[in-house]
Amino acid sequence: MLEKLGNAIKKATDKIANAIFLDKNLVNGIVRDLQRSLIEADVNIHLIKELTDKIKKEALDERIKGIEKKEHLIKLLHDELVALLGEDKKLELKKGQNRIMLLGLYGSGKTTTIAKLGNYYAKRGKKVALVGLDVHRPAATDQLEQLAEEHKLQSFVDKKEKNPLKIFDSFKKDLKKYDVVLIDTAGRHSLDGELIQELKDIKKNVKPTESILVISSDIGQTAKSQAEKFKEAVDITGVIITKMDSTAKGGGALTACAEIHTGVYFITNGEKINDLEEFDPKSFLSRLLGMGDIDALIQKIRLVTDEGTQGEIQQRVSEGKMTLDDVIEQVKSMGAMGGFGKLKSMIPGMNSAKVTDDMLEGQESKIKRWEHIVKSMTPHERENPEVFEKETSRISRVSQGAGVNNSDIRALLKQYKMLKEMIKESASMDPSQGFNQKQMQKMMKKFGKMKKVRF
Ligand code: GDP
Ligand code: MG
Q: Quick one: which ligand is closest to 188's CA?
């Protein structure tokens, strides 16, 4: 249930992507939202502070401007989150027999995960055996046997013997022909001396190639101390975090393991046999954010923000020299937003920007029409569109020349006026920063309504 966290990060990414003007307030807002959701995911407060301090510092670094800053921030946020999730540690199978022992507390998900792993490796062509060494709970062996049967896996259990070492010894010969031997062990309510001793004895006898601690994600950041204790007592080679589907605290468990450099091999996210996945921080985050490659995203952002053009237009406007060509240029850059209906789904915030398809529809043909119109104007008219207001006969002349309706010209003139007003409103803005999201939105809204305007 890390959806909330995903949404929060999405929102932060989005705010950065859309708001070209990254002022202190905006950055603080982003950081606050981010902090809140990371806390909800039970990520350690110190880690959160480190991450958000970094973002704040970079965001307000005056040396990086405009689009570069946005890219930089999104990448930073992404990279820091990946780092927070830890290294990409894979469970590499060794040549010969792999004896993979799972250990952990009661109910952490050992037995079900054994079945999932068995299925996982069987599907990859390995000869798999499941061995039940949980001798304390009678139901445990039944559970393992049932799961094995259900998924056509070979299980080795002994319902009478109470000594796990003897059980393993009795199967040793039969187990020789298996590539992957998955060993289920008993848990306790806590890691007590008895459990430590039992695990140590089993390890000595089994000589596992991997000893994996199974942690239920609902313990959140407590995973840190739990993993540390197990590491110290019986030495573990990696971790599997279970039940990611049923808690919001998964982020805490994952980042806790990363903090102590304990690689997370797999996560499980459901009770079904296939609800197991290799844990790769990068792809995990991408999926959490519901977006593809971060580099692709940045490219798209670059595509729609032609900083140079916007800066020039604003420069001219501030000098009182905006022309109709500038309007078209500006609208074209918004048209690019329409063209990237695809981007809308890539950056979920585009949806929340309330840029509806209806608004974007027909933009291209409109712009083409406007370009014709401007070509039919005299240079004086282009640079001083106000003359149309004074001499409306000019409108008919141009519309005839361009083969459009008078209303098309009026729409263009209205757009010009509106743009001029808006730019005036934002005159205090840093010209290199372009429009911010609110202004864009306002403009898109007005722009969308244009079709219906008659004047
Ligand atoms: P063990 O005591 O460590 O062997 O834990 P079990 O494998 O018996 O699992 C304990 C409970 O957690 C069972 O009811 C499982 O179905 C459930 N469980 C295990 N993994 C997951 C998971 O990824 N998602 C959910 N929702 N439940 C799980
Ligand atoms: Mg069990």
A: 1
- Note whether 201 and 226 are within 8 A (CB): no
Average pLDDT per 10 consecutive residues for the chain, totaling 455 residues? 81 76 83 91 93 88 71 84 91 96 96 96 94 92 96 95 95 96 94 92 96 97 95 95 93 94 94 92 81 55 53 62 69 49 36 46 67 87 87 90 88 77 53 47 48 30
Residues in the chain: 455
Distance CA 301, CA 277 (A): 31
The closest ligand to the CA of 104 turns out to be 1
Cβ contact 352:18 at 8 Å: no
For residue 420, with 0-12 CB atoms within 10 Å meaning exposed, 13-18 middle and 19 or more buried, which class applies? middle
In this structure, the residue with its CA closest to atom 19 of ligand 1 is 109
Question: Which two three-digit tokens encode residue 59?
Answer: 């965001």
Helix (H, G, I), strand (E, B) or coil at 213: strand
Which residues, 6 or more positions from 107, have their beta carbon under 8 angstroms from its beta carbon? 187, 216
* pTM, 2 dp: 0.68
Nearest to 344 by CA among 360, 329, 333, 330: 360
d(CA 20, CA 27): 11
